[in-house]
C-alpha cells in the first residue's frame, strides 16, 4: 500500500510551512471518513504514533445516532475510547484542501492494541491475510457512479431534494459534447485525485442526466478500498468548492438510473506477476481456481448481498431494464448479469460483480467477495455454464434479495460469513441492518403523504 507522501517528506513540508494540517481518519461503518484535523506539527511530534476516538463511531447509524443493542459499545459500557493508529503508508497530500495531508488509521482496542474486529478496515485486513497465507494477492477495482447537480447541498436541502437541476439536462452516456459541460468538476476530480496518489484511468457520462462514472486503477484490495473512500469524500469536497453537489445514493430518483459500484476482482501470485485466473486452455480461458472463486461468489451471493446494498434505498436500484442486475448468474459479457466475466482471453481476466451500489462500504464489500471466493475454492465448486440472453426476463434464475429485510435474513443465517468474519462481527452488522430497517419502518415518507393525506 502506498500514499504519495512519506513521513520524512511530511516532516520537511511541515517545517517549510507547505503543510499545516493533517487529517487522521478512520473509516466508519457507512464507509465515510471520520477523525480529527491535527495541527501538522503536533501530528509529526507525537500523534503520528496514535490518537484516540470514541468507540460509538463504530456503533452509530448514518445520522450519528448512538444505536442501542451493540455488544461492542453502549451506554452501559460508557462509550469509551478506541485507538486510532495512523497507517503511515497511506499518507498523502490532498490538493483540493489548502496545505493539507491525510492518513488512514487502523482502529485498535484501547487495552490490547489489537485490531478492533468489527472495524471495516480490520474486517478486510483479515480476509487479505487469508489470501496471503495461500500465496495470493487479490486485485480489486471499484467503478463509482454518482449524480452531479447544478445545486449546492444547501439549495438541494431547501428544495427538499425535489426538482433538482442536474449538471446536464439529458442522458449523456459516453457523449463527449454533453459531458464537456461537467468538466469544471470532473477535470479537477481526475487531476487532483491523481495528484493525491489515486490513479484515475478515466471518467465518462453515465445513463442518467448529470450522471458520472469514474474509474480508478486497480490495486491490492486494501489499497483499493482506501482509494475508494478518499475518492468519495474528495469528490463531494471538490464539487462543493465549485458550487455543485454530488449524490452517491443508490437510487435518488425512481425514474432515473441508479448509482452502482461495480467491483472487478481477480487473484494473482504473491509477487503480483502471474495472473492466477488466466488459462488459455480452460473453458472461457478462466482457470480452475478462477472458476471455483466465481462459483463461490455465485453460491453465496444472497448471503452477502447486504455488504453490497446496506440500506433500504439500495434495493430500489434493482429494477429491470436499468443496467442494474436483478438475478444471480454470470455471463461472458452481458450487462444484465449479476456477475460478468471481463478480459476473457487476456491476463487481465477477472470477475465483475455488478450487484453493489455506490452507497456500499468498500472494505465490507471486498471482504465479503473474498470470503465467498475462498469458500468456492475450499469447496472445489464447479462453475455453472454462462447465461446467454436477457436475464431480466429469465424467471428460472435465482433473484437478488428484493428488500433490505430479505437481505438481512439471509445475512443472519450465513454460516460461511460467520466462519470467515467471526460470530461477533457478523452479529454486529446484522444488528446494523436490523436498526436501519427499524428506522425506516417507523418514518413517514413523502410518497405516503402524497398518496394518502387526502385519499385515505
UniProtKB/TrEMBL annotation:
Domain GS beta-grasp stretches: 17-115
- Say if the entry is tagged with keyword DNA repair: no
Q: Which UniProt keywords apply?
A: ATP-binding, Ligase, Nitrogen fixation, Nucleotide-binding
Domain (GS catalytic) spans 120-456
Q: Which Pfam families does its entry note?
A: Gln-synt_C (PF00120)
Which metal ions or organic cofactors does this protein require, according to UniProt? Answer: Mg(2+)
Q: SMART domains this protein is in?
A: Gln-synt_C (SM01230)
Q: Which SUPFAM superfamilies match?
A: Glutamine synthetase, N-terminal domain, Glutamine synthetase/guanido kinase
The UniProt similarity line reads: Belongs to the glutamine synthetase family.
This molecule's function is given as: Catalyzes the ATP-dependent biosynthesis of glutamine from glutamate and ammonia.
Protein's name in the database: Glutamine synthetase family protein
Q: Lineage, please?
A: Bacteria, Pseudomonadati, Pseudomonadota, Alphaproteobacteria, Hyphomicrobiales
Amino acid at each position: 500500500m502506498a500514499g504519495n507522501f512519506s513521513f520524512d517528506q511530511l516532516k520537511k513540508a511541515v517545517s517549510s510551512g507547505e503543510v499545516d494540517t493533517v487529517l487522521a481518519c478512520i473509516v466508519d461503518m457507512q464507509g465515510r471518513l471520520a477523525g480529527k484535523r491535527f495541527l501538522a506539527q503536533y501530528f509529526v511530534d507525537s500523534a503520528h504514533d496514535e490518537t484516540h476516538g470514541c468507540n460509538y463511531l463504530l456503533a452509530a447509524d448514518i445520522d450519528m445516532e448512538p444505536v442501542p443493542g451493540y455488544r461492542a459499545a453502549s451506554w452501559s459500557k460508557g462509550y469509551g475510547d478506541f485507538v486510532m493508529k495512523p497507517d503511515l503508508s497511506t499518507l498523502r497530500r490532498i490538493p483540493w484542501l489548502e496545505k493539507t495531508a491525510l492518513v488512514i488509521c487502523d482502529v485498535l482496542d484501547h487495552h490490547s492494541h489489537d485490531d478492533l474486529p468489527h472495524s471495516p478496515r480490520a474486517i478486510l485486513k483479515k480476509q487479505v491475510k487469508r489470501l496471503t497465507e495461500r500465496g495470493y494477492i487479490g486485485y480489486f477495482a471499484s467503478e463509482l457512479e454518482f449524480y452531479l447537480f447544478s445545486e449546492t447541498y444547501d439549495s438541494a436541502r431547501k428544495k427538499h431534494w425535489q426538482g433538482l437541476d442536474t449538471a446536464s439536462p439529458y442522458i449523456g452516456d459516453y457523449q463527449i459534447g454533453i459531458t464537456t459541460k461537467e468538466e469544471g468538476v470532473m477535470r479537477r476530480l481526475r487531476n487532483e485525485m491523481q495528484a493525491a496518489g489515486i490513479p484515475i484511468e478515466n471518467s465518462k457520462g453515465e445513463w442518467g442526466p448529470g450522471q458520472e462514472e469514474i474509474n480508478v486503477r486497480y490495486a491490492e484490495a486494501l489499497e483499493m478500498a482506501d482509494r475508494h473512500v478518499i475518492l468519495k469524500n474528495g469528490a463531494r469536497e471538490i464539487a462543493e468548492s465549485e458550487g455543485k453537489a454530488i449524490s452517491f445514493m443508490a437510487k435518488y430518483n425512481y425514474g432515473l438510473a441508479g448509482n452502482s459500484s461495480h467491483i472487478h476482482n481477480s487473484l494473482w501470485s504473491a509477487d503480483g506477476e502471474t495472473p492466477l485466473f488466466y488459462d488459455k486452455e480452460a473453458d472461457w480461458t478462466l482457470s480452475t481456481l478462477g472458476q471455483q472463486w466465481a462459483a463461490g461468489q455465485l453460491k453465496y451471493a444472497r448471503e452477502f448481498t447486504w455488504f453490497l446494498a446496506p440500506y433500504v434505498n439500495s434495493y430500489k436500484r434493482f429494477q429491470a431494464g436499468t443496467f442494474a442486475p436483478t438475478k444471480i448468474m454470470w455471463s461472458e459479457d452481458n450487462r444484465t448479469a449479476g456477475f460478468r466475466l471481463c478480459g476473457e482471453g487476456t491476463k487481465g481476466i477477472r470477475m465483475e460483480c455488478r450487484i453493489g451500489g455506490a452507497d456500499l462500504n468498500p472494505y465490507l464489500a471486498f471482504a465479503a467477495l473474498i470470503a465467498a471466493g475462498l469458500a468456492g475454492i475450499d469447496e472445489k465448486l464447479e462453475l455453472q455454464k454462462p447465461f446467454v440472453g436477457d436475464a431480466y426476463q429469465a424467471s428460472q434464475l435465482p433473484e437478488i434479495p428484493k428488500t433490505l429485510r430479505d437481505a438481512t435474513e439471509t445475512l443472519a443465517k450465513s454460516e460461511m460469513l460467520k466462519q470467515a468474519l467471526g460470530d461477533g462481527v457478523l452479529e454486529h452488522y446484522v444488528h446494523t441492518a436490523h436498526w436501519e430497517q427499524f428506522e425506516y419502518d417507523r418514518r413517514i415518507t413523502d410518497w405516503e403523504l402524497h398518496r394518502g393525506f387526502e385519499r385515505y
